[in-house]
Amino acid sequence: MIESMVAVLLFSLGALGLIGLQTSAIKMAAEADDRNRAALLADDAVASMWQTNSITLSSNDLLAWESAVAAQLPNGKGEITSVSDVSNTADVVITWRSPSRKSTDTNRLSTRVTLNGPDF
Predict the structure, then answer these.
(1) Are the beta carbons of 39 and 109 closer than 8 angstroms?
(2) Helical H runs in the chain?
(3) 77-82 and 89-96: which strand pairing?
(4) pLDDT-derived band of residue 119, with 50, 70 and 90 as boundaries?
(5) Around Cβ 4, how many Cβ atoms within 10 Å?
(6) Rounded CA gap, 14 and 38, in Å?
(7) What is the reported pTM?
(8) Cα separation of 8 and 2, whole Å?
C-alpha cells in the first residue's frame, strides 16, 4: 500500500514538472514570435528607405509603420532617427513589453542602416 502511494506521489510530481515545462515553452515561443515580428517590422522600414533612396520616410509612411508596430507588438513603439555624424545613416529602434512582464522589463530591437551605392 505504501509503495503504491509513493508511486502515485512520484508520478504526480513528474506530471506537475511537465506542466511547468510546457508553460515555460509556450511563454518562450511567444517571446520568440515577438522578436521575429519586430525584426520583420524593422526590415519593412529599411525596405521603404531603400525604395525612396532616403533614410527619412514620408510622414504618411512613418505613421503607417509606427501604427503597424503598435498593432503587431504588445505595447510596441517604433522610432527612426538619423545619425548626425554619419551620412545616409539611420537607427531603427523598436521596443515592446509583454503584458506578463514588469513595466520596467522591456524588449528592444535596434538596427543601424547605412545607404550606400551609386544612387546615394
Answers:
(1) yes
(2) 2-52, 59-72
(3) antiparallel
(4) low
(5) 8
(6) 36
(7) 0.78
(8) 10
